[in-house]
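pasting for the record
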Amino acid sequence: MFASTKLTGKSITVSTQAGREKPLFPKVPDYHKPNKPLVPTGLGVIYVIVSAAYLFFLHAFELDISQSGGNVSPALTLAVCILFGGFMGLLDDWMDLRWRYKAFFPLVTAVPLMALAYRMGTARTAITLPILGTIDFGIYYFFVLIPLIVTVTTNTVNQLGGLNGLETVCPAIVLIGLMVASGKNAVLLTLPLAVWLTLAHFNFQGKIFVGNTGSFAIGITLAAFAIISDLKWCLLISLLPYILNSSMILLNYFFFRTKANVSFDGERLSSYHRRSLITLITYKRRMTERQVVTVIAFLVAVSTFVAIAVQLFLL
């Protein structure tokens, strides 16, 4: 059976030999819009494919940062991480896995990062902590701390979503901050950032969803790039709104067995409890979806600005 693809004003469709048309990407309801329109989801795969191809190109023509002491390419490592992240998200979209299982998926993605950090002779295993001072984790940095950073980052980014623009605009802000603080390493994310900002534009307008494929891939990107560029503190401070959100969700679930839920009356969002960052902002307050996303994006922007200042002037 032959098929052709065409782009219409509303969606991407595939025409089969029988003359029938079906969406190239599956559609899901947008629950925070009147009449719950169907929106294409899973377009995060575009970010995964383009980013991986770009990074492979940098590696093939040696346009990335100079090779590490162990001949492990940062561009190649980042490409593998993004592909792993995209695959995990795609698997979750297919199987709708429970959090108890997919929370540990990022551990697999940490393997190439562990190899890169372990084989490069310049990797810093010491981290400066407030009050405690500088602690050298030694071998535990590679086999404990790196998997922990990847797992926490990916899961916290994936948990802060559900509103148009929230799972794309906020990670883009953190990504830009890391690129500013990284110096020459920013070349690794030049094209990936452009692709992600394009997806963020359409996602903010409610025309597409990036799906778990996109949210997992961008979470892995943040963690991997921070480790490659030695920007762990910068990443941690930038993610403070994410960490607050995940902490509220997990504490309420484990101690009170309650979940966060925001109500939509057809025009505005509101909540009568404070179990997540979204419900905290909308607690007894009616706000539009874009207002909520703007407030959270502003919080992420503030934390990212502080992170850049700390990284450039204090560390």
